[in-house]
Amino acid sequence: MLHLVAFLLHCLPLAMGHYDICKSWVTTDDGPSWEFYACQPKAMRMKDYVTVRVDPPGITCGDPPERFCTHENPYLCSDECDASTPDLAHPPKLMFDKEDEGLATYWQSVTWSRYPEPLLANITLSWNKSIELTDDIVVTFEYGRPTIMMLEKSLDNGRTWHPYQYYADDCMEAFGMPARRVRDLSTTSANRIICTEEYSRWAGSKKEKNVRLEVRDRFAIFAGQDLRNMDNLYTRLESAKGLKDFFTMTDLRMRLLRPALGGTYVQRENLYKYFYAVSNIEVTGRCKCNLHANLCSFKEGSLQCECEHNTTGQDCGKCKKNFRTRSWRAGSYLPLPNGSPNACAAAGSAFGTVRRPANPTRLGPKPVPQEPPENIRDCECYGHSNRCSYIDFLNVVTCVSCKHNTRGQHCQHCRLGFYRNGSAELDDENVCIECNCNQIGSLHDRCNETGYCECREGASGPKCDDCLPNYYWRQGCFPNVCDEELLICQNGGTCYQNQRCICPAGYKGVLCEQSKCDSDNKACNSASSTYLSLTLFLISALILQLRRLDF
Ligand SMILES: *[C@@H]1O[C@H](CO)[C@@H](O)[C@H](O)[C@H]1NC(C)=O
Ligand SMILES: *[C@@H]1O[C@H](CO)[C@@H](O)[C@H](O)[C@H]1NC(C)=O
Ligand SMILES: *[C@@H]1O[C@H](CO)[C@@H](O)[C@H](O)[C@H]1NC(C)=O
Ligand SMILES: *[C@@H]1O[C@H](CO)[C@@H](O)[C@H](O)[C@H]1NC(C)=O
Ligand SMILES: *[C@@H]1O[C@H](CO)[C@@H](O)[C@H](O)[C@H]1NC(C)=O
Ligand SMILES: [Ca+2]
C-alpha cells in the first residue's frame, strides 16, 4: 500500500489534469455545441506493450548449461544457468515481468569465457508506435552494473538509430567524451546527448543496481524541482527545437559493452563472475498522438491512438478522408491552459481565411512563432512542417524545414533526389521516394516523376544499374571488347566476360588477330614448328609462282 501511494505521489505532476479531455459539450449564445481541446493519453508502464530482441543469438545463458559466481562470492561458483530447466533459466522476458517482493527474476548473459574478446549484447525494445517518455527509464542490474554501456533510440521503427546516452566508469577512456551530469545542463542544452559516470562505478552489486536515463531531471530544467511549473515545460516543448523529439521514440536499444568488474581489473583465472543480468527495464511514457487523442489502446499486438479531431492513423498523424480541406497539423499545448486542437476540417467549414501579418516591419525571413494564430492559418505545409516564415518583400508565408524529403512553399514538392509516390496523398509521410540512382551508372542523383534516373553512356535500367546490350558492367558500363556475334575472338581465342580475348600461344591483339611472329622473331624461334611450317609454306608458294612463270 505504501508503495502504491509513493508511486501515485511520484507520478502526480505528470498525471495531473492537463490536456486530458479532447472535447466537451458547452452551451454558448448560439446554443449548445462541442468545444475541442488539445489532448493526450495518460502515462503508462510501457514495458507491458513492448517486444524485445536480444543479440547476438546465443548470448542468453543456459544453452549449454553454465556455472557462474558473483563478485561478492567469487570462489563459490555453484550457481547454474540452464535454459532447459524453468527454475534455472534466465530468458529475456524476465526483464519485463512483475517484480514481486522477494527474489528478483532476470535475464542473464553467458559469462565472459572468451575474454579478452569483448562481451557484447544488444537488448532492443520495440513498440511499433511512437511513444513519449514522461519519467526516467530505469534499468536494474543484478550482480553489478556494466562498466560501459550506451542507449540508442529510433524514431522510425528501427530503420535509423541515434545515440541517446553514454555510460562508463571513465567516459573519456570509453567514448572520448567528458563526463557530464544531467543536473548540470541548462535550458539551452536540455536535449544534449551526454556521457555520465554516475551509474557505472562499482559500489557493491547489492547497493547500486539502477542505471537511469534522467527524464525528470531534464523536465526539471524548465519545470523546476518537483515539476511544479509544468506550464513552462509545455511552452518549451512547443517552442524549443528538437526538445519534444528528444523524449520521443519507437524503439530503444541498450548496448552492453563491458560487464561489472567488481571494482578491479579483469581476473582471467575466474571469468565465471563476469556477465550481465537485468531484472527490470522500466519505461514510463505515453502514446504519441500529436495531441489529438486522450486514449491509446492495445489492439492486435500494437498500441494505437483513438484519434479525435477528425484525424486518423496510428499517431493521429493525418486527416481522415473528406477532412482534408486544411492540411494536417499536430495539436499544440499553447495557448495555455487548454491548447489548440488544430482539428482537421471538412469541405464547407469555416476555415482557411487567408490573412497576412499586419504591418510587416522586419526585412528577410522571420520565423513565425506559435502565438499569433492569423499567421499560422497561412502555414499550409501538408503536415510536413509546423513552422512558416514570412518573407516581407515577397509578401508570402512559406514553410520552413519541410520534413519527409519534401520542399517548396507548402512542402508540396519532393526534394532533389526524390520523386513523388503516385499512390500516396500529398500529406502522406511516404509521399517522396528516394531516386536511388546508381552512383556510377547515372549522371546525377535526380530522377523523373516515375523514378527513372538519367544514365551515362552504355548504362540502362530505371536506376542505371544495368548495361545496354553490347556493354558490360565493371564499375560502370563499357562497350564489349569481344562477343559471340560481331567481335569474335580470332584464331581459337576465347572471349572472357566480354572484356578481353584470351589468346592461344602465338597470337595477340585485341581479338587475337595478330600472330606474334609478325613483329617478334624471338617468339617465332621458340615456337619453331610454327616458324618451320611457315617457311615451308613460303617456299612452296615460291615454287608455285615459278611454275606459273613456266621456266
Ligand atoms: C548492436 O547494435 C549495433 C547497432 O546499433 C550494431 O552495430 C552492433 O553490431 C550490435 N551488436 C551486437 C552484438 O549485435
Ligand atoms: C505495427 O503497427 C501497424 C499499425 O497498427 C500494424 O499494421 C503492423 O502490423 C504492426 N507491425 C508489427 C510488426 O507488429
Ligand atoms: C469531425 O467531423 C464530424 C462530422 O463527421 C463533426 O461533427 C465534428 O464536429 C468534427 N470534429 C472536429 C473536431 O472538427
Ligand atoms: C507509397 O505510398 C504508399 C501509401 O502511403 C505506401 O504504402 C508505399 O509504401 C509508398 N511507396 C514507397 C515506395 O515508399
Ligand atoms: C521517365 O523516364 C522514363 C525513361 O526515360 C520514361 O519511360 C518515362 O515515361 C518518364 N516518365 C515521365 C513521367 O516523364
Ligand atoms: Ca524481472
TrEMBL record:
This protein's UniProt keywords: Cell membrane, Developmental protein, Differentiation, Disulfide bond, EGF-like domain, Glycoprotein, GPI-anchor, Laminin EGF-like domain, Lipoprotein, Membrane, Neurogenesis, Repeat, Signal
SMART domains: EGF_Lam, LamNT
Ranges of residues in domain Laminin N-terminal: 35-286
Ranges where the Laminin EGF-like domain occurs: 435-479
S-S bonds: C435-C447, C455-C464, C503-C512
Its job: Involved in controlling patterning and neuronal circuit formation at the laminar, cellular, subcellular and synaptic levels. Promotes neurite outgrowth of both axons and dendrites.
Protein name: Netrin-G2
Species this protein is from: Chelonia mydas (Green sea-turtle)
UniProt topology in membrane: Lipid-anchor; GPI-anchor
Localization of this protein: Cell membrane
Oligomeric form and interacting partners: Interacts with LRRC4.
SUPFAM superfamilies (alphabetical): EGF/Laminin (SSF57196)
Signal peptide region: 1-17
Pfam families recorded: EGF_laminin (PF00053), EGF_LMN_ATRN (PF24973), Laminin_N (PF00055)
GO CC terms: plasma membrane; side of membrane
Ranges of residues in domain EGF-like: 478-513
